[in-house]
Amino acid sequence: MSPDGTGKREALEPDEKASLKGRDSVVELSDSKNSRSPSIRDGSLTAKLENPLAGLTHEQLLVDAAEFARTHGLGDYTETLQKGALLAQDPAAFESLPMLTEEDRRVLRREFTHRWDHPKTLYYLVIMCSVAAAVQGMDESVINGANLFFPSQFGIEPTPGSGASREQWLIGLVNAAPSVRSGIVGCWLTAPLNRFFGRRGAIFVAAMISFITCIWQGVTNSWQHLLVARVFLGLGLGPKSATVPVYGAECAPPLIRGGLVMMYQTWTAFGIMFGYVMNFAFRNVPDPAGIRGLNWRLMLGSAGIPALVIVAQVYFCPESPRWYMMKGRYGKAFESLRRLRHTDLQAARDLYYIHVLLEAENKMSQKTHHKLLELFTVPRNRRATLASAIVMFMQQFCGINAIAYYSSNIFVQGGFSQTSALLASFGFGAVNFAFASPAIWTIDTFGRRNLLLVSFPIMAVMLLMTGFAFWIPASSSAHVGVIALGIYLFTAAYSFGEGPVPLTYSAEAFPLYIRDLGMSLATSVTWFFLSVVTLTVPALLGAWTPQGVFAWFAAWNIFGFLAALLFVPETKALSLEELDQVFSVPTRTHAAYQLKAAGHNFRKYVLRQKVGEMPPLYEHEGAIGEKTYAPGRVGAA
Fold first, then answer.
1. Which CATH class is domain 120-317+368-576?
2. Where does this protein have compositionally biased stretches of type Basic and acidic residues (predicted)?
């Protein structure tokens, strides 16, 4: 690119015009407010973010790469960066590029044939991120076992049959404190922590807060003191949950990025399971002289140990190259990529592509001045916000964290002993972890929306079965068996559907120029409603009994199915431009189409009637209202 960038703009103009022409049929569906959206108002912006190098000649790329190397202190790598720039334009075209040697081609070919062959440093980073996710899960589950012990010690144990008592509200408040603080403050600390300390620094600070507050929880002497400690725990949960997936995504190679980001949810499930292991292991620890409640104190403190491991290890991992480049430290970014890739050529390719993508993002950012407002005022963004909010809200109101935080109490109310309740809770965690792993593959094959539409009805039925099981006479062996079975089957349905989808969906639904704000809003939604669930469940168990609570969450799963059907478009395997097309379809049009499609599919697959094919809804599937797919679609993957 020339120093003033004009060469790049001129080279892109034909593609920009084609992009705008191809998008007309979708853009016209939105109201006039679309003109305020950079991604809708100017199709060229989306085109540049989809591939900022599209349309440039090889000669121009070589000149631009040489200038890039000179101006950023990378002159010793000029030829390597020129090769990298050619590859960045079309990574799959390496066989036909004359500048590449046969050894270069062999390495690049191996990227496609051995997708998981990468330097040990990358996998060291993945392990560190996995431990961070496990800490998140442990912070959620160790309080589950502690709930059986600390209320009686601190004088807030509810009286059986007392209804929604003050004590139950206080237990809920103690449990909800971290998520309240995380949703209101913690998530919004993510941006400043990342800006000033980097990805590693933000993770270090969050993990240090988690370690200190976990130990703090273990030495509290009243429920008020425990409440304060857990409030401060929320300061670490929010930034960690938002930063770790971003850090992994920015360091991972594109071909395995989705799988590595999905592992955050998988290892969070592992952390939940391991927290139950700690609960079971410490349940019968006796109190030494001068210490009361050592068992629950060790449960809460155990989550601090993996957090300390993160603190000790995070700076042995390379910093995110994207963060270095945002700070203008291109030499450091290249060093980081060289540690994360096998060859300098691969590092140069990714460095140059990140560079041009950041330039395109910066140009987009300059065209908008009220990013937070545009999440709600721009129709395309508002629909992404609505869909993300639905999946994040339902992640809590599907009922999973009512079980994650209170399964031990629920099992005790169902007739289990304390030991059996803790063991049954471990089974819940094990099922959660076991069924989270397959989602790494199904989320990109079966689709985000389809997973939701399948899992919500199953979760509703399993919750109703669990609630009804409490009416089975306690003397019957089926009483506890059906309760446990219902919870386990519910958890399995959650783990492959509503469990992995929200984070992945929210991370891709928003345009790049407001993605950070969109993700902060989405994570704050899930943390806020987590606090609502953890605060109210003890009182609901007292007022409604377990039967009423399980029926309550079953009803929410029916709502979740309808909301996903009407307001959550599919985002699987779509390019940035295709995502713009999907979220540019008016909500009313999308909902009406999906209702019609639901009836069509019911007649076709349930009643086995012969019905015609539904016309496609989106331009990348074919023009709306037409039954044939449009040739030469814009933005094809």
1. mainly alpha
2. 1-34
